[in-house]
Amino acid sequence: MNPSRMGLVFPGQGTQREGMGEPWRDTASWRLVEEISEHSGTDVEELLLRTPGEQLRRTDLAQIAVYSVAMMAHAEAERAGLLTDAVACAGHSLGEYAALTAAGILDLADGVALVTARGQAMREAAAARKGTMGVLVRAGLAEAEELVAKAEAEGHAVWVANVNGPGQIVLSGMEAAIEYVADQAPEAGAKLIRVPVGGAFHSPLMEPAADRLPAALRKVTFAPGRLPVVANVDGEPYAGDADWPALAVRQLVSPVQWERSVHTLTGTLGCRRLLELGPGRTLAGLIKRITPHVDIVSLDRPDAVR
């Protein structure tokens, strides 16, 4: 196995923070801010430098902000010659769009268009069908599914939304459903931590967004690309000629199979190193729990390039 093989991973919504663009202002990649602003119809500079953290939690704003920083991180890594050994990409939820752009399957304009449309559709779906999310810690998938089944038997609407790694399963559902699981979790030796998000993402409550996204998908071009991207919905690698529109729609209402995706990168695809590109180091923490033997580096600031 080639020890130089590297995978690129991109974080998702929830990694945004106030002033997240400040470290990137003096880099060559900052030029992307104007381009992304033009394609999205959003003042991305304002978003990355001056938008208050509470406002930045808004789904559509958070998504374009995280995508923008991920694209700047990727551009700086490429400029520094760090990507020559890259053989595959993957992204967590929203991060999948950054992965598709980095892989050359989407160009920047189409990537921005889809992130913008997706964020707006998810925000509207969340407003129409109120829901929330919670992280179930100290529980595996089997325990999580048992708690979900127990909640459903009591008439609650709740689903597994992210399989993030050992001892971390994220659930989506109605407010009362998440509260019910939080009350029942200690009996399973687990604990549920509420996630401050505006919707029950990656669940059937996002079906209105899944109904809207195809209109945006029909307007963009999916190219052959340079690298395969490991899809959230099944943890399998796909080239640019795959049915990415169908995968993108499924992703909105299906669990993010992140643990399986990491095993595909480090097992099937033989990546001995992973590079996290974008804000924060959330994925590095998850990856270390999934595959402790793999080297993972987070490029969350320009000075991390050196």
What topology does this entry show?
Elements: E1 6-10, H1 31-40, H2 44-49, H3 53-56, H4 59-79, E2 86-91, H5 95-102, H6 108-128, E3 132-137, H7 141-153, E4 158-165, E5 168-173, H8 175-184, E6 191-195, H9 207-217, E7 229-230, E8 237-238, H10 244-253, H11 258-268, E9 273-277, H12 282-290, E10 295-299
Parallel strand pairs: 1-2, 1-9, 2-7, 9-10
Antiparallel strand pairs: 3-5, 3-6, 4-5, 7-8
Helix pairs in contact: 1-4, 1-6, 4-5, 4-6, 5-6, 6-9, 7-8, 9-10
Provide tags for this entry:
306 residues, Malonyl CoA-acyl carrier protein transacylase, 44% helix, six-stranded mixed beta sheet, globular, Malonyl-Coenzyme A Acyl Carrier Protein, domain 2, Malonyl_CoA-ACP_transAc, [acyl-carrier-protein] S-malonyltransferase activity, Mal-CoA-ACP_Trans/PKS_FabD, 2 domains, 12 helices, Alpha-Beta Plaits, single chain, four-stranded antiparallel beta sheet, alpha/beta
Helix proportion range: 40-55%
Side-by-side strand order of the widest sheet: 8-7-2-1-9-10
CATH superfamily of the largest domain: Malonyl-Coenzyme A Acyl Carrier Protein, domain 2
Cα Rg: 18 Å
Major pleated sheet = 6 strands, mixed
Q: By helix and strand content, what is the structural category?
A: alpha/beta
Number of strands: 10
Work out the strand percent: 15-25%
Gross CATH architecture of the largest domain: 3-Layer(aba) Sandwich
- CATH class categorisation of the largest domain: Alpha Beta
Instruction: State the distance separating the first and last CA atoms.
Output: 27 Å
- Low-confidence parts: none
Compute the number of helices: 12
CATH topology of the largest domain: Malonyl-Coenzyme A Acyl Carrier Protein, domain 2
Number of domains: 2
| C-alpha geometry | globular
Q: SSE string, helix = H, strand = E?
A: EHHHHEHHEHEEHEHEEHHEHE
